[in-house]
Amino acid sequence: MAHRLPAPDQAAVQEEVANWVRQRGRPLATDAADAPARELEFLADLVGDAVVAGLGGSTYGAHEQFTFSDRLVRYLVSELGFRSVATEEDWDVAWEVNRYVVAGDGDLDTLAKSFGVPWRVAEAREAIAWLRAWNEEHPGDEVKFVGVGVIDTKAPVYDEVVSYVERVAPDSVAELRSHLDVLRPSRPDHVPWFIMQVPEKDPYVEHARAALQLVQSLPADGKDHELAVQHTRQIVHFYEHYAYHLVDDGYRDEKMAENLRWWHQHTGDKVVYWSTNAHSVRSEELTISVPPRGTIAFKPTGGHLAELFGDQYRSIGLTYDHGTVNSGWSAPPFASRPLETPPPADDFAEKPFINNGTPRYVLDVRADAPQVVRDWLRKPAKARVIGSICDDSVPHEHWMTGGSLEQWYDIIVHQYTVTPTQPL
To answer: Is residue 141 assigned to a domain?
Structure first.
């Protein structure tokens, strides 16, 4: 009878992984967003022919993960020809930011304060300022900013749709208004009002879908028609989300991927998708622990993007060992607050990501590795993720599963310690 060799114990495997990291981790001098690009030149081979590059931090609220993501954006734009930056920000908010980025319309400070809470930080403001500066220096070769989120759709999007139909099909305006006038947000508490005080939500969804069908039926006249249809889609997404998908069941991530694909097709741009690992990783289904709410499970945007773009989607993950991050804006008192996070628990995938004397390094997940390391990279992983809700008493209960490190990422950037983002 054949005897199986005993499986290596966890400590021995982690030591093998740590040794591999010592050999393969490429130290970086700084995480400063404005650091010279030459230190990142080796990433060109790792990014390769990617059409979409996903950047996913393990938290929204770490200064160093934010600034290094900004640094990566600048490298991808300036050296590798990426010409759009997509975030989870809502379509309408980012549409106004894009006017500033491309043409200088509006006031940066006012726009930055309109961001969703995790992006309403000094680090995001600096990233937008850099995009505007790039465009000023490269007329005719502009980089764009787009939000693929579907959480809110405000009145200016409705105005864009009406304005288009008034121009190309004035006889259809009355019919369009019969739908949009019902839907148009007219109160500052439109979202909670619709969630809590509108018992019959189906009619709103039907009006939104009818408006979309009307705009789609107009004679196609190129980019303007495409954009009017896409604006109207966001109205449908908004109402479908709050009518049928308020629990995070994956609808939001599916629509974010569809919006990003549409933007790529509409512009022809290579796109940086700047998000968090809970949305950017390649996975068929993530399970995320969100104390005190329990767990949620859904297919993340990165899983959809991997289907849509195949090998031309690259996933870059940002991890860290310990430090303080901001979180807590989706639970009372609905404001960011610092959360102390200790080094990862023994069963976390980040545990063997030792820093070996360097504060940060880049790891090519696809690099040659001993079989025991490759097996470890391919086994189901549990990793840190800290989103908009936090429970200080159980920091190790903020995690995600649903795939392996090899499935999730092509590249990992590991930071030893982090500090909180700087709210505006």
So the answer is: no
Q: Which residues contact 300 (CB under 8 A, 6 or more apart)?
A: 250, 253, 278, 279, 280, 281, 283, 286
The alpha helices in 341-419, defined as continuous H runs, are: 371-378, 405-408
Sequence letter at residue 167: R
Contact 184, 155 (CB under 8 A): yes
pLDDT digits (tens, 9 = 90+) for 117-160: 889 999 999 999 999 999 999 999 999 999 999 988 999 999 99
**290 touches 398 (CB < 8 A):** yes
Token pair 């004035």: residue: 170
Q: Are 318 and 59 in contact (CB under 8 A)?
A: no
CA nearest neighbour of 59 among 406, 401, 321: 321
Residues 21 and 159 in one domain: no
Cα–Cα dist 180/204, whole Å: 10
Q: Are residues 175 and 276 in the same domain?
A: no
Q: Is residue 121 part of a domain?
A: no
Structurally, how many domains does the chain consist of? 2
End-to-end CA distance of the chain: 68
**What pTM, to 2 d.p., does this model score?**
0.94
Q: Report DSSP letters for 101-163, one per residue.
A: HHH--S-HHHHHTTS-GGG-BHHHHHHHHHHHHHHHHSTTS--EEEEEE-S---HHHHHHHHH
| SS3 at position 82 | coil
Whole-angstrom distance, CA of residue 392 vs CA of residue 394? 6
Task: Clarify whether residues 299 and 247 are in a common domain.
Answer: no
Identify the CATH number of the domain in which residue 399 sits: 3.40.1660.10
Phi-psi region of 179 (alpha: psi -120 to 50; beta: other; left: phi over 0): alpha
DSSP 386-406: B-S---TT-GGG-EEESS-HH
Task: Render pLDDT for 224-281 as a digit per residue (tens, 0 to 9).
Answer: 999 999 999 999 999 999 999 988 889 999 999 999 999 999 999 999 999 999 999 9
- Asked if residue 279 and residue 414 are part of one domain, the reply reads yes
Domain match, 395 and 300 both:
yes
Q: Which amino acid is at 349?
A: A
Q: Name the CA radius of gyration of the chain, rounded.
A: 22
Specify if 249 maps to a domain.
Answer: yes
The boundaries of the domain holding residue 239 are 155-254
